[in-house]
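Good morning,

Attaching, inline, the backbone tokens for the sequence recovery test we're adding to the shared suite. The designed sequence is right after.
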């Protein structure tokens, strides 16, 4: 019998998603590709399983699936804890720290409590460098490279190269705006502009973990720019906000100093409609011939992050995703796809027989189940008035509901779960509308793993990422019809080992 609401007797490590060797993990940091390796740094407390003095944990991979754990790259010192940031390849030794050779630079925030009150703190921007492919790190003698401006929330530097102006740009979270700083040498920085006042969604919590990148626009109309800039922002959980922390993005133009939003200021674009996709960062310096913008997120929510089940470690990352831009009738939007490296773990595709006739009320089909980790893909065709429920994981622990009308399909998601902790039991379960799809043909892709379920709909235009702690992970999964009809047009399934 599947346990739906109780804490599992043990928490198993996921087969496909990155987790720390022990202790606590939150934001991904310093994502950079160098000398054939993907570097993943992360906020890390190795000595406890709740948030605490922040280190930079470190791992490397050549395939985004198998990770080698390395010693922490940055550890707290008299300057403070080592908060989030980014890393780049200083390919031409612009900083002068590498004797003319390429090297790695990490930009991070130091967080220092100034009195006995933990809310009385200073945050400054610092630099560290590595001359040995990231195996050891030296903090720059000139730290901080940007001193505290006199207000508290001043953190999470993201450094990128802006080719047209031939300058380095740092996007920095400052309260509830993003400031942009400029540099010619990666050491000396000047403030250029800020963006965010009155833009997008704000809560009582600060903006965090910015990312900034340019992408081509698929399907751009004639006369429209072929590329757009994307500014990604984490929004901290507000005290009165039942949703918790989430990730929004803006699409627009960046001229090397200022970001200009393409959409009305009140437009809110969420990168993921689920509860557990936060502190998103993308990899710097991925080879041009690869051609992908790869990103990853911390799968958690600050409303219950310190209360989720643990087994000597707590925290997991999403599976890496390829992000792109596409023109839509509503404007340019992000699309996401699971990085294709998941196929290296895939067993031979299971043979899936789709029903020959449409499913109606009282009929259902069992989707392939039983694997701890799996990838699935299907296309459904719904009639107007149809109501379809998909139990994609663990016998009712999570359900996706699709309700079709003449104009399209409304998407609803429900999650159950309790572990006896008031904070977790209050905020973890939910029942929410997550969006609408145009038309009545629904494309759905998912990755299920111990501890999580990641969903992509409509070719990746809509994403839903959720933690999931019921056991067992593998369970027969049903597609049931409550009203109307639907047809399973196509389906594929892979167990992942």
């Amino acid at each position: 019998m599947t346990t739906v609401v109780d804490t599992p007797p043990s928490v198993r490590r996921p087969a496909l998603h990155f987790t720390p060797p022990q202790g606590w993990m939150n934001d991904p940091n310093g994502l950079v590709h160098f000398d054939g390796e993907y570097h993943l740094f992360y906020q890390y407390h190795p000595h406890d399983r709740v948030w605490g003095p922040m280190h930079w944990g470190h791992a490397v991979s050549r395939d985004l699936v198998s990770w080698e754990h390395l010693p922490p790259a940055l550890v707290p010192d008299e300057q403070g804890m080592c908060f989030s940031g980014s890393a780049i390849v200083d390919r031409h030794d612009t900083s002068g720290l590498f004797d003319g050779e390429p090297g790695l630079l990490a930009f991070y925030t130091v967080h220092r409590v100034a009195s006995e009150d933990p809310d009385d703190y200073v945050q400054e921007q610092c630099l560290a460098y590595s001359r040995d492919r990231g195996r050891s790190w030296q903090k720059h003698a000139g730290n901080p490279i940007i001193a505290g401006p006199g207000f508290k929330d001043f953190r999470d530097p993201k450094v990128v190269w802006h080719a047209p102006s031939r300058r380095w740009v740092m996007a920095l979270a400052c309260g509830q705006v993003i400031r942009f700083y400029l540099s010619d040498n990666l050491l000396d920085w000047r403030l250029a502009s800020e963006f965010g006042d009155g833009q997008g969604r704000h809560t009582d919590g600060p903006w965090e973990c910015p990312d900034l990148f340019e992408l081509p626009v698929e399907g751009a109309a004639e006369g429209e720019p072929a590329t757009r800039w994307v500014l990604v922002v984490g929004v901290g959980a507000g005290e009165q906000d039942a949703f918790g922390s989430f990730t929004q993005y803006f699409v627009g133009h960046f001229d090397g100093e200022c970001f200009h939003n393409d959409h009305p200021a009140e437009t809110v674009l969420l990168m993921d409609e689920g509860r557990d996709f936060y502190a998103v960062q993308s990899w710097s310096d991925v080879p041009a011939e690869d051609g992908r913008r790869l990103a990853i997120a911390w799968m958690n929510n600050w409303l219950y992050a310190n209360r989720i089940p643990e087994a000597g470690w707590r925290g997991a990352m999403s599976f890496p995703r390829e992000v792109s831009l596409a023109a839509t009738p509503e404007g340019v939007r992000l699309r996401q796809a699971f990085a294709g490296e998941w196929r290296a773990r895939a067993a031979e595709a299971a043979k899936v027989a789709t029903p020959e006739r449409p499913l109606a009320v009282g009929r259902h089909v069992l989707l392939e189940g039983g694997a701890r980790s799996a990838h699935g893909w299907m296309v459904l065709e719904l009639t107007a008035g149809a109501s379809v429920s998909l139990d994609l994981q663990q016998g009712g622990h999570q359900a996706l509901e699709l309700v079709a009308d003449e104009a399209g399909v409304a998407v609803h998601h429900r999650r159950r779960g309790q572990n006896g902790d008031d904070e977790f039991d209050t905020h973890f379960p939910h029942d929410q509308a997550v969006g609408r799809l145009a038309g009545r043909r629904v494309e759905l892709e998912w990755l299920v793993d111990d501890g999580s379920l990641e969903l992509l709909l409509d070719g990746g235009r809509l994403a839903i990422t959720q933690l999931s702690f019921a056991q067992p992970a593998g369970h027969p999964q049903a597609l049931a019809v409550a009203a109307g009809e639907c047809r399973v047009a196509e389906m594929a399934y892979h167990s992942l080992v």
